[in-house]
Specification:
Elements: H1 3-8, E1 13-16, H2 25-37, H3 52-56, H4 60-72, H5 85-90, E2 96-101, H6 108-118, E3 124-127, H7 136-143, E4 148-151, H8 154-162, E5 166-170, E6 183-186, H9 192-201
Parallel strand pairs: 1-2, 1-4, 2-3, 4-5, 5-6
Helix pairs in contact: 7-8
The chain binds magnesium ion (MG).
Protein backbone atom coordinates (compact mmCIF):
# COMPACT_ATOMS: atom_id res chain seq x y z
CA UNK A 1 0.00 0.00 0.00
CA UNK A 2 1.35 3.44 -0.91
CA UNK A 3 1.67 6.28 1.55
CA UNK A 4 -1.27 8.27 0.10
CA UNK A 5 -3.80 5.47 0.38
CA UNK A 6 -2.51 4.68 3.86
CA UNK A 7 -3.06 8.27 4.98
CA UNK A 8 -6.54 8.37 3.46
CA UNK A 9 -7.79 5.49 5.55
CA UNK A 10 -9.49 5.99 8.81
CA UNK A 11 -10.22 3.52 11.54
CA UNK A 12 -7.09 1.47 11.07
CA UNK A 13 -7.16 -1.35 13.59
CA UNK A 14 -4.00 -2.42 15.36
CA UNK A 15 -3.62 -5.03 18.09
CA UNK A 16 -1.41 -5.16 21.12
CA UNK A 17 -0.53 -8.03 23.39
CA UNK A 18 -0.92 -7.38 27.13
CA UNK A 19 1.73 -9.27 29.11
CA UNK A 20 5.27 -7.97 28.59
CA UNK A 21 3.95 -5.25 26.26
CA UNK A 22 1.43 -3.32 28.38
CA UNK A 23 1.85 -5.20 31.67
CA UNK A 24 4.90 -6.35 33.65
CA UNK A 25 3.35 -9.73 34.34
CA UNK A 26 6.39 -11.95 34.69
CA UNK A 27 8.33 -9.54 36.92
CA UNK A 28 5.33 -9.19 39.26
CA UNK A 29 4.76 -12.94 39.28
CA UNK A 30 8.41 -13.85 39.97
CA UNK A 31 8.74 -11.23 42.75
CA UNK A 32 5.69 -12.68 44.48
CA UNK A 33 6.88 -16.28 43.94
CA UNK A 34 10.42 -15.49 45.16
CA UNK A 35 9.11 -13.97 48.39
CA UNK A 36 7.14 -17.10 49.22
CA UNK A 37 9.76 -19.63 48.12
CA UNK A 38 13.05 -17.88 48.92
CA UNK A 39 14.18 -18.11 45.28
CA UNK A 40 15.91 -15.46 43.20
CA UNK A 41 14.38 -15.91 39.78
CA UNK A 42 14.52 -12.92 37.44
CA UNK A 43 13.11 -11.99 34.05
CA UNK A 44 16.64 -12.13 32.58
CA UNK A 45 16.79 -15.85 33.34
CA UNK A 46 14.03 -16.57 30.81
CA UNK A 47 16.37 -17.00 27.87
CA UNK A 48 15.20 -20.40 26.69
CA UNK A 49 11.53 -19.52 26.47
CA UNK A 50 8.79 -17.45 28.12
CA UNK A 51 7.41 -20.80 29.31
CA UNK A 52 8.75 -20.92 32.87
CA UNK A 53 9.28 -24.69 32.90
CA UNK A 54 11.51 -24.44 29.83
CA UNK A 55 13.69 -21.67 31.28
CA UNK A 56 13.62 -22.33 35.04
CA UNK A 57 12.90 -26.04 35.37
CA UNK A 58 10.02 -27.75 37.21
CA UNK A 59 6.99 -28.87 35.23
CA UNK A 60 4.48 -26.81 33.30
CA UNK A 61 1.80 -28.08 35.69
CA UNK A 62 3.85 -26.78 38.63
CA UNK A 63 4.07 -23.24 37.23
CA UNK A 64 0.43 -23.21 36.13
CA UNK A 65 -0.64 -24.02 39.68
CA UNK A 66 1.41 -21.09 41.01
CA UNK A 67 -0.02 -18.79 38.33
CA UNK A 68 -3.49 -19.91 39.29
CA UNK A 69 -2.75 -19.00 42.91
CA UNK A 70 -1.30 -15.62 41.84
CA UNK A 71 -4.55 -14.94 40.03
CA UNK A 72 -6.82 -16.27 42.80
CA UNK A 73 -5.13 -14.08 45.41
CA UNK A 74 -5.90 -11.01 43.29
CA UNK A 75 -2.35 -10.07 42.30
CA UNK A 76 -3.26 -9.89 38.61
CA UNK A 77 -5.11 -6.66 39.41
CA UNK A 78 -1.93 -5.09 40.80
CA UNK A 79 0.55 -5.80 38.01
CA UNK A 80 2.67 -2.81 37.02
CA UNK A 81 2.50 -1.06 33.66
CA UNK A 82 5.28 -1.88 31.16
CA UNK A 83 7.80 0.95 30.89
CA UNK A 84 6.83 3.56 28.29
CA UNK A 85 3.55 1.84 27.35
CA UNK A 86 1.28 4.73 28.37
CA UNK A 87 3.33 7.33 26.51
CA UNK A 88 3.70 5.04 23.48
CA UNK A 89 0.01 4.24 23.22
CA UNK A 90 -0.87 7.91 23.62
CA UNK A 91 1.09 8.58 20.42
CA UNK A 92 -1.04 5.99 18.58
CA UNK A 93 -4.27 7.79 19.45
CA UNK A 94 -5.44 7.89 15.83
CA UNK A 95 -5.72 4.10 15.61
CA UNK A 96 -8.40 1.75 16.88
CA UNK A 97 -6.34 -0.31 19.32
CA UNK A 98 -7.47 -3.72 20.54
CA UNK A 99 -5.71 -5.70 23.27
CA UNK A 100 -5.42 -9.37 22.26
CA UNK A 101 -4.10 -11.62 24.99
CA UNK A 102 -3.45 -15.34 25.28
CA UNK A 103 -4.57 -15.18 28.92
CA UNK A 104 -7.34 -17.56 30.04
CA UNK A 105 -10.91 -16.49 29.33
CA UNK A 106 -11.60 -17.18 33.00
CA UNK A 107 -9.43 -14.15 33.81
CA UNK A 108 -11.17 -11.96 31.22
CA UNK A 109 -13.13 -9.74 33.58
CA UNK A 110 -10.05 -8.98 35.70
CA UNK A 111 -7.89 -8.54 32.61
CA UNK A 112 -10.36 -6.09 31.07
CA UNK A 113 -10.71 -4.14 34.28
CA UNK A 114 -6.93 -3.74 34.58
CA UNK A 115 -6.55 -2.67 30.94
CA UNK A 116 -9.41 -0.19 31.13
CA UNK A 117 -8.12 1.27 34.35
CA UNK A 118 -4.56 1.76 33.02
CA UNK A 119 -5.24 2.36 29.30
CA UNK A 120 -8.49 4.17 28.66
CA UNK A 121 -7.72 4.43 24.93
CA UNK A 122 -7.96 0.66 24.33
CA UNK A 123 -11.05 -0.01 22.24
CA UNK A 124 -11.66 -3.62 23.33
CA UNK A 125 -9.94 -6.48 25.18
CA UNK A 126 -9.96 -10.03 23.75
CA UNK A 127 -8.82 -13.07 25.75
CA UNK A 128 -8.12 -15.96 23.39
CA UNK A 129 -6.37 -18.65 25.51
CA UNK A 130 -3.77 -18.76 22.76
CA UNK A 131 -1.64 -21.35 24.58
CA UNK A 132 -4.29 -24.01 23.98
CA UNK A 133 -3.97 -24.18 20.23
CA UNK A 134 -1.71 -22.57 17.64
CA UNK A 135 -3.31 -19.82 15.57
CA UNK A 136 -5.91 -18.47 17.99
CA UNK A 137 -4.25 -15.09 18.41
CA UNK A 138 -3.71 -14.65 14.67
CA UNK A 139 -7.34 -15.64 14.00
CA UNK A 140 -8.61 -13.04 16.47
CA UNK A 141 -6.43 -10.41 14.81
CA UNK A 142 -7.92 -11.33 11.43
CA UNK A 143 -11.45 -11.27 12.87
CA UNK A 144 -11.07 -7.71 14.18
CA UNK A 145 -9.24 -6.60 11.02
CA UNK A 146 -5.94 -5.81 12.73
CA UNK A 147 -3.17 -5.03 10.26
CA UNK A 148 -0.41 -5.05 12.86
CA UNK A 149 0.24 -6.44 16.33
CA UNK A 150 2.70 -5.40 19.04
CA UNK A 151 3.80 -8.65 20.68
CA UNK A 152 6.67 -10.20 22.65
CA UNK A 153 5.98 -13.91 22.12
CA UNK A 154 7.75 -15.53 19.18
CA UNK A 155 5.13 -18.25 18.59
CA UNK A 156 2.42 -15.56 18.34
CA UNK A 157 4.64 -13.30 16.24
CA UNK A 158 5.21 -16.19 13.84
CA UNK A 159 1.56 -17.20 13.56
CA UNK A 160 0.54 -13.58 12.87
CA UNK A 161 3.32 -13.06 10.31
CA UNK A 162 2.13 -16.22 8.51
CA UNK A 163 -1.25 -14.53 8.09
CA UNK A 164 0.32 -11.33 6.73
CA UNK A 165 -0.30 -9.38 9.91
CA UNK A 166 2.68 -7.10 10.53
CA UNK A 167 4.41 -7.62 13.87
CA UNK A 168 6.44 -5.33 16.10
CA UNK A 169 8.27 -7.61 18.51
CA UNK A 170 9.05 -6.06 21.87
CA UNK A 171 12.58 -7.24 22.62
CA UNK A 172 12.84 -9.66 25.57
CA UNK A 173 15.36 -12.32 26.71
CA UNK A 174 13.09 -15.12 25.40
CA UNK A 175 12.70 -13.78 21.86
CA UNK A 176 16.30 -13.07 20.78
CA UNK A 177 16.19 -15.38 17.78
CA UNK A 178 16.07 -14.68 14.06
CA UNK A 179 12.82 -13.13 12.91
CA UNK A 180 10.64 -13.97 9.92
CA UNK A 181 9.71 -11.45 7.23
CA UNK A 182 7.16 -8.90 8.39
CA UNK A 183 8.45 -8.85 11.98
CA UNK A 184 10.47 -5.89 13.28
CA UNK A 185 12.14 -5.78 16.66
CA UNK A 186 11.65 -2.79 19.00
CA UNK A 187 13.85 -2.27 22.03
CA UNK A 188 11.47 0.05 23.86
CA UNK A 189 8.05 1.66 23.53
CA UNK A 190 9.68 4.91 22.40
CA UNK A 191 10.49 3.27 19.03
CA UNK A 192 7.04 1.83 18.46
CA UNK A 193 4.86 4.74 17.22
CA UNK A 194 7.33 5.50 14.42
CA UNK A 195 7.67 1.79 13.54
CA UNK A 196 3.88 1.38 13.36
CA UNK A 197 3.61 4.13 10.73
CA UNK A 198 6.64 2.83 8.84
CA UNK A 199 5.31 -0.72 8.67
CA UNK A 200 1.74 0.23 7.75
CA UNK A 201 2.99 2.38 4.90
CA UNK A 202 4.66 -0.64 3.31
MG1 LIG B 1 3.12 -11.26 25.92
Amino acid sequence: MGLDSYLEQDNIVIATDIDEVLANYVVSFLCWYNKINGTKYTRDMLTESYELHESLGNTQKYWLSWMKRFYEEGHVQKIGVFEGAKEGLAKLAGFEIHAVTARPTLWHEHTSRWVNQEFSSIYEVHSVEGFREKGRKARKCQEIGARLIIEDGLPYANECAEQDIKVILMDAPWNRKSLPKGVARAYSWSEIPHLVHLMLEQ
